[in-house]
Amino acid sequence: MNKKGLAMGLFLFLVLAAMGGMKWMIEQQKQQTEEPAMIQQSSLRDETQEESRESQETTSVSTSTSVSTSTQEQPEEAIAEKIATMSLEEKVGQLFFVRVPESNQIEELQKYHFGGYLLFGRDTENETAESLKQKISDYQAASAIPLLIGMDEEGGTVTRISRNPNLTDQRFLSPQQLYAQGGWSAIEEDTAKKAEILKAYGINAGLFPVADVSTDPQSFIYDRTIGMDAQGTSAFVERVVHVLQKHHVGSTLKHFPGYGNNRDSHVEIVTDDRPLSALRETDFLPFAAGIKAGADSILVAHTIVNSIDKTVPASISKPVHELLRNELHFKGVIMTDDLDMAGLSEFIPQKEAALQALQAGNDLVISSTYQEQIPFVVQAVEDGRYLEADLNASVKRVLLWKEALHLL
Questions:
Q1: Contact in structure between 97 and 334 (CB atoms under 8 Å)
Q2: Binning pLDDT at 50, 70 and 90, where does residue 41 land?
């Protein structure tokens, strides 16, 4: 090949190489132009998907909240509907927590529509495990609305079921004895065992723990308490309430506003002269702790507390009940101590006691004289002396408690 041919070949090679380089550069530039767009589209898709997920999560949370709220509202709505169908006599009967009559127990509960039966030592002393279960089962079967079956199995000096060796393997110890043996863990283990035994027999409401602050061994209530100051008593109450809750057994804090080191209202009218500030600093604290822990009910004592209401015993005092609702913010069931106790029975006639207790703000009255008291309360509603709206509010609280115990 001559020089002219070589020159032409070299020229063509350079032209082709240049064209190939330009094509590569164009492809690279195109790819760089498309990549941001692809990244932007991918980012947009990711953002859209994220928004979709967030939207789904928000919807899910909203739905969950709605379901939860709906679930909470359903029992109240069902109970309101139930109350609307009840007769006046049925509603009044629900507010009576009655000591089991010595005879005609089935006939009486069907006639008076009791809210519950309260068992004492006489109701268990001659029973076997099988006969006690059957007796309580018969009570429930005969009642149109499931009954609260209560017992104040405190341990120590107050035992209703464990005093009978046919029913438990040993007698329950007092809170002080338990704490001395094993501290708080012993208290919790004992409460759990107690709850299991009560439930096994069909007893769904424990009238304990004792929330009174007493540090004087000479006071009548001391042996029934944990025997500690307000902080120690609060810790005791909180633990017992939590364990009972776990086992679906009702709890009752007693005896509001607190006995302290006062005398026994079972046998006499008792007056408490302590200032309200002292009660707030000590006696109220275990009740506040129990309320915070979720206590179902509070039992009010028959002591006359001069700093709150010097005219009548606490159990029939409206200011005492208003303090419990408005200052301690308790929303559960308030009940009286036994209306037959001397601290009240020597103060007002038994026929009037239940009405005055309900007018003061109690939701349940513990009674043995129900045959006089129930017709008296029914008449008071008909006369307008006890408002039906107040009656319905108390019935609602009682039925909500039963709902919480899985009775309804």
A1: no
A2: very low
Kindly provide the b/e burial profile for residues 320-336, where b requires at least 16 CB atoms within 10 angstroms of the residue's own CB.
bbebbeeebebebbbbb
**Amino acid at position 376, single letter:** F
Q: Are residues 227 and 176 in the same domain?
A: yes
Indicate the SS3 state at residue 149. strand
Report pTM. Answer: 0.81
pLDDT of the residue at 266: 59
Whichever domain contains 140, its CATH number is 3.20.20.300
Q: Give the type of residue at 170.
A: Q
For residues 194 and 200, give the distance between their C-alpha atoms in angstroms, rounded to a whole number. Answer: 10
User: Rounded distance, CA 387 to CA 393, Å?
Assistant: 10
Q: What are phi and psi of 79, to 5 degrees?
A: -70, -40
In the chain, the percentage of residues whose pLDDT exceeds 90 is 75
SS3 of residue 41 by DSSP: helix
Give me the chain's average pLDDT, please: 85
| Token digits of residue 227 | 């025997």
Number of domains in the chain: 2
Indicate the SS3 state at residue 148: strand
Identify the CA nearest to 209 among candidates 178, 181, 180, 182.
178
Cβ atoms of 357 and 320 closer than 8 Å: no
Q: Give dist(CA 224, CA 261) in Å, integer.
A: 12
Domain span at residue 257 reads 87-404
